[in-house]
Sequence to fold (220 residues):
Amino acid sequence: MRASMAANDSGERCKGVNCMWGDPSGFLGGAALTAMAIAGGGQNKAALDLLAPRLGDSVIELGCGPGMGVRAALKRVGREGFVAGIDQSATAAHYAAHAVHGACLEGRAAIMRAETADLPFRDSMFDRAFAVNSFQFWVGPARALREISRVLAPGGRLVITQRAAGHDSGTNFAGAARGMDRIGQATALLKAQGWRIVDERCVQDGRRLLAVSVLAERPA
Fold:
């Protein structure tokens, strides 16, 4: 799949250093992916706690970055489950494939370079899907949600999680608002397409608002 400039229908675009987060490449991209691996554990946990994958489930992470979310999901679904990760960045896909190399060899995981709006999977393949800090980089999020619905089985569920703020949400109102705004945009698109909103949740870590999430069930 060809990676294109990271953007979504709200007009956000990946430019300059910001591209290291949406489409990481080269030395700086590697540094960005390392930072994601270090900092994203709490948000991955928040997403997976809300998603609640079951033993034996098939799960896909949309925008898997360095693969820490895929690795965490593998622990939730057990050896009978399957987890796929996609990312529009070739560098990210390489890092993720390395992170879950053993599971890929065993057929329990797969990492692919792809965009959320053009998923290389068959209809109804997955039970659960999740995206952590990637919604703002989807190229055409309305189309992406239709693709996610296509690859989810009936009753399948999706969690979209966004980082809420910086080190202290008590003072970093702009950071908290940005994460909430993105979840608000995602929720509006989900409702417009007939997804059922199951839950909306904020996760705190002490004084810090760690993440905001929405859980939705695919349209019938």
Notes: The chain has a mean pLDDT of 83. The chain has one domain: 16-217.
